[in-house]
Amino acid sequence: MNGTAxxxxxxxxxxxxxxxxxWRFSQVFGERGAGEDVQDVDIISAIEFNRTGHHLAxxxxxxxxxLFERTDAKDHVSRKEAEKADYSISRHPEFRYKTEFQxxxxxxxxxxxxxxxxxxxxxxxxxxxxxxxxxxxxxDKTIKFWKVQEKKVKKICEMNMNTxxxxxxxxxxxxxxxxxxxxxGGLPLLRMPLVTSQETSLAANCRRVYAHAHDYxxxxxxxxxxxxxxxxxxxxxINLWNLEISNQSFNxxxxxxxxxxxxxxxxxxxxxxxxxxxxxxxxxxKGSIRLVDLRQSALCDTHSKLxxxxxxxxxxxxxxxxxxxISDIKFSMDGRHILSRDYMTLKLWDVNMDSGPVAxxxxxxxxxxxxxxxxxxxxxxxKFECCQSGxxxxxxxxxxxxxxxxxxxxxxxxxxxxxxxxxxxxxxQTQNPARPVRSMTRNVRRENTGIDxxxxxxxxxxxxxxxxxxxxxxxxxxxxxxxxxxxYGFAGAGAGARCRILPPVESRAPRSxxxxESRAPRIxxxxESHGPRIxxxVEFRAPHSLxxxxxxxxxxASRRRVAGLPPSAPAAYRALRRRASGLPRSAAAARxASRRRxxxxxxxxxxxxxxxxLELEEDDPVAAGVEADDPEAAGAQVGDLAVVAVEEQHxxxxxxxxx
Length: 659
What we know:
mainly beta
């Protein structure tokens, strides 16, 4: 078991169980070849999506920031346009390289004899203005505010020069007929130079530098929802900045004791509430999370809420406090939950319930017997990040061997998916049983040296520390050394495309969307004076919409052959998926289907369009119920097919052509 839920989740705070997602490889940037060495400066150290998800930024240990932008089709702006086009999303989000720039350079503090690395610790996007992107990047000591925008390159395309006369060296010169003395009338062909913009280029400008405010290494920065301020946190202090003022900050949290020997915990991460500008949370090395209200006092020495989980005294050991240290916290998009990551587990907290986490997911439980070895090689101090989906239904975090795990937050749900940062992410995939607690005990007992709880070998030298979840899509971007991998998830088995389902609107539904019972054709009694004899009361459906639910696939293929349509069509797949999900089809498709349902065999006599005759064998599913030696079979109707002739071994049928 890789994830279990706490025994006392509340109904309000625990999301309902969701169907499992299937994950597929999407893209990779900077993929290294077999046997290729990775330079330390190229290793990715930060990943961040902007608020809309249209841009992605990464930072590396070399101080560079690389930007990517989304390239796939944009959504329709209105429901009316979507219905007209019968629009569906068949592609997952895709990104392309946009630009990169050098954010930080290595520095040296001569007063403290301290070398400052150029490594990017955190990146945060700010609000866009006039088509320009703004972001904050920080290393251990200095925060920088960057503006990235497109600039038009201007060139002079026409000069006021006569190139007929030139110097001997080939240089252009202005020709004046009177030997260089201008007449009162001036030059006869005086023209102003023309400046044109022929191309655009991306430029990154550093607008402000926020420096000399932290004595210890900066571990977090976070934007405020007011769009004017942000915080930066180091081991002992949290400072509040104004984006427009770079030479002054306000210290709002200070945990530094008077005597440093009395220091018991440090700040490990801090983040603003996504919508409340007065609320922020910060975590500590003791495994606690403190919620702070800036309205209480200028110096927030006291917290408004404390979230922590106490362990029994008998279970404490030398490593208890080390593995309890929280390396990362994230607010959910709605601000209702806080996600925290320590070395062993991933915890989900409800901001309205400080008695304990609403869910706890085991990540490194199989490493508990190896804590001594992890301490000796410093792996126990690795800082793994965490992320949560935009809808708050799933969470994810990284692990060793370049794998990351995705957990379902549903109450009582044991779903966990293990993916590896490669082009084939599911080769390590593991789906947990519905009763994860019992399976966890069995997995730990099977553990061997170098083997995790799922029977896979693990490598402590390859670790996936940084990942981010797209704010609006099931898309995860993660960093494995110098490579950026992206994976997308979708619900359902065997479908690589996601279908956008429009909400039903009762007032706009056509009258033809009545229950199926009211639309069933009448059964006509056999009589010579009447039209074609109805052999089977089969409800008419458009030939291109595959088969009704429950009919064999062969029947649908035969219908498509009769109508002269290809074996498959995107519209047919969309219609089938709408029926399978129990939702009504789009209004445009429903109206077209309503018109097609008006066709009947008698309309063929008055000029209704029919397909060219097609021969069907006796064993074809369409021909079921028609006897080859029945003289009255000709002229009958089988479903929506009109039998026009009967021969020894086959039938000659026609189908209506959709109008």
